[in-house]
Specification:
This protein is α/β, with parallel strands linked by helices. The chain is built from 10 helices and 9 strands. Bound molecules: adenosine-5'-triphosphate and magnesium ion (MG). Residues 86-87, 111, 116, 189 line the site of magnesium ion.
Amino acid sequence: MRSRPDPTDRMFRRKKPENDAEQSRPEDEMIVVVDRSVNPYLVLFHEPAGYRAEQIRALRNRLVTMNPDGEPKSLVVTSAVRGEGKTVAALNLAMALAELEHHRVVLVDADLRRPSCEHYLNLNAEPGLSDVLLGRAPVEKLLRPAGYRNLMLLGAGTRVGNPAEVLSVGRIDELLRRLKERFAYVVIDTPPVLPSTDAGVFSARADGTLLVVRLERSLKKQSREAVRVLQDMGGNLLGTFVTELRGKDPESDHRLAYEMVRPEDE
Ligand SMILES: Nc1ncnc2c1ncn2[C@@H]1O[C@H](COP(=O)(O)OP(=O)(O)OP(=O)(O)O)[C@@H](O)[C@H]1O
Ligand SMILES: [Mg+2]
């Protein structure tokens, strides 16, 4: 069941589109509310000035540094098995990238088995990736504002019986080509690597892949195996995205806080 948005939470109105071709889309005026109770780990949204959000921005900055020419790039976020934090990591990273000026960013929910981007963003499920891959609609028609800056979302779309059959290399290449014409970064949330080949297929077609490792839960053997599978399938592994580091809550260490001082406080 979808929880009701908290009226005290912040609302974001999408800026007017820069591109004339998009001017008539009614969704551009849509207000999206991201509800903290749906997923508190979307730290870019809920605690933008906090330590964890800064860590995500540090990762973003490293990725941007790895792309000195500023070419449009596609990035897969995946992990070895279920529930390691892929979707949250992909959402936070996409939000951090969308904070950069003049960077249009799209998040693609490529988990056709257990999609959750729309749920975490408190959006209804609508046609998306599967519909594009099946040729039912052009991708431009199915992009929606995600509720954070200029971040757009391509949801997983209509449920399909056998996702592996929909994910043909040719269709994925065409989709990524079209998205990279419009966006500086395409962040792709995928299912886990070990139970199906979906993540490997996307990883092989994308420019880079990040592997999420949940330190308290992920098994080293499985993460290693996932790295091997991704590399065997031709993925370009850029690094790991480690979450749930053991130890004291960083927010409680005042030395790690470095908040903005407003002029009136000085
Ligand atoms: N950094 C984190 N620390 C603690 N819990 C987290 C963190 N990131 C995500 N979670 C929680 O872990 C659960 C799984 O997160 P998420 O849905 O992102 O994982 P996933 O790898 O995408 O799962 P699936 O394999 O089902 O797609 C969620 O309840 C989420 O709120
Ligand atoms: Mg997920």
